[in-house]
Amino acid sequence: MITTNSDAGNTYQVNANVSGSLIKNVLGLKLNGLYSHRDEDKIISGFPERTIKSIGGQLSYNPNDNNTITADFNYNRQERYSRIGKSLAAGGRSTTSFDDYDRINYALGHQGKYGKLRLNNTLQHDKSDNFSRGMRYQTTILNSINTYDFKKHVLSFGGEFRNEKLNDPENQFENNGVIQSEIKRYNWALFAEMNWKLVEKLNFVTGIRYDNNENYGSHIAPRGYLIYSINNNFTLKGGVASGYKAPSLRQSTDNWGSITGGANAPVPGVILGDSSLKPEKSFNQELTVMFENDKKTFSASVTAYNTNFQDKITEVRLCDNCEYNGKDYLFVSRQSNVDKSVIHGLETNLTLRFTKDINLKANYTFTESEVKSGDLKGKSLSRLPKHMANTILEWKATKDLDFWSRYNFRSKSLPGISRGNAATTTIADYSLVDLGGIYKFTNNFQFNLGVYNIFNRQVYNSTGASEFRIDGTRYQVGATFRF
């Protein structure tokens, strides 16, 4: 990826995938690898130099036609350099810095087919290390998703067990003279969903989920919706669902301070946990109308939704440039519950095939949110734009040559409940246009070219400052080999 802005860093990437049978129909192997490098921007608060290396693989064993056993391994390493005079300003709290992160994932899986019963079970362990901070986060997850076909009705059922452990010596606060650097907990859940075929064109889907958290006890969340095929062209869907989300490890731990604020700040910011946080609950109502013509050259859908939240978890600013617990901070925030809030909106999707070689896909989203009670009443929950639209036009010019063009629009984003500028400033509306093409030289080799942000659009907030970095016009050149 080559940018036309000489101060912005270029990106180079190569990835490879290999798969095949070691023993036909019995033992299979998949391997993948990636190397990606982005040069550091010569822009204050711009992107650092970043290198990503990853490798992974899966070994699959089929002892018979009904069973498959898989073993997966994935390793990802990310390194970042930030240098004074490039992406860092002189005088901040950091000097030229190097950050490195590792993530390792192991998984064992089993898929089984036994008549009308389908089983899918996975045991996995993830370990993530931030070596620059000495932080390690580990999770062990047992996940089960299964189905049973009753001919007219289909039952889905399963569960999950999750054990989490976080060790972070960067925690800033003491508890009885001791800084707590390790926190852990477990939670588990069971779920069941039944798709009932009531009559020929009407299905009723019911579901229930039971959550049990070591710190927050148990909760039951039901849901249900109807699917009605009006005729061969129109389908109507509608229903309700309840949701539940327990606070994360950091959010729910007293005397836990997560450092943030950016390297250019003279002092760090800190976000405090709170053991008095309540789990976040929601109730969603949704209605969808779908249409597809007889020739299947045109399809469209419209979805209207409304979600009511109780005790939504968010970060609330306590003070800026202040002293807390005997130290100076850029800001101090605390994880808090918002008593009552709502998000509602509209989503539309459209697919149009002009000819067998020209296709158009488009979607539009309208979103509004509001806090309905408490000190933050009337504010938006987040700084999402009200209006978002995306289109992509695809043209198969010849058997070997494809072209595509893409348009993305985001309306002005108003302030919401968040930290710093996100709570006080707006982001201007913007549009991005991209173009690209693919040429297939042979069945095993193709060449790709893309031009992104053709009109070099920049985005600013209501103070006239650059709010977040969107790269200017840039070119992507790539090739794909298959063997």
Please describe what this structure looks like.
- The protein has 483 residues and is mostly beta strands.
- It has a single domain (2-481), classed as TonB-dependent receptor, beta-barrel domain (Maltoporin, Chain A, Beta Barrel), CATH 2.40.170.
- The chain is built from no helices and 26 strands.
- It has strands spanning 2-3, 11-23, 27-38, 49-64, 67-82, 97-114, 117-130, 135-149, 154-167, 174-175, 178-179, 182-199, 202-213, 217-229, 234-245, 257-260, 269-272, 280-292, 298-324, 327-353, 358-371, 387-396, 401-410, 430-442, 445-452, 474-481.
- It has a 24-stranded mixed beta sheet that branches. A two-stranded antiparallel sheet has the order 10-11.
- Mean pLDDT is 86; it is low at 462-467.
- Its main location: membrane.
Strand residue content: over 45%
CATH architecture: Beta Barrel
Q: Tell me, what's the shape?
A: globular
Helix and strand sequence: EEEEEEEEEEEEEEEEEEEEEEEEEE
- Cα(first) to Cα(last) distance is 25 Å
By secondary-structure content and strand pairing, the structural class works out as mainly beta
Low-confidence stretches: 462-467
Please describe the biggest sheet, giving its number of strands, its sense, and whether it closes into a barrel. Answer: 24 strands, mixed
For the secondary structure, the number of strands is: 26
The average pLDDT value, as a whole number, equals 86
Oligomer: single chain
Number of helices: 0
**Domain module count:** 1
| CATH structural fold name | Maltoporin, Chain A
Q: Output the CATH class name.
A: Mainly Beta
Looking at this structure, what is the CATH superfamily?
A: TonB-dependent receptor, beta-barrel domain
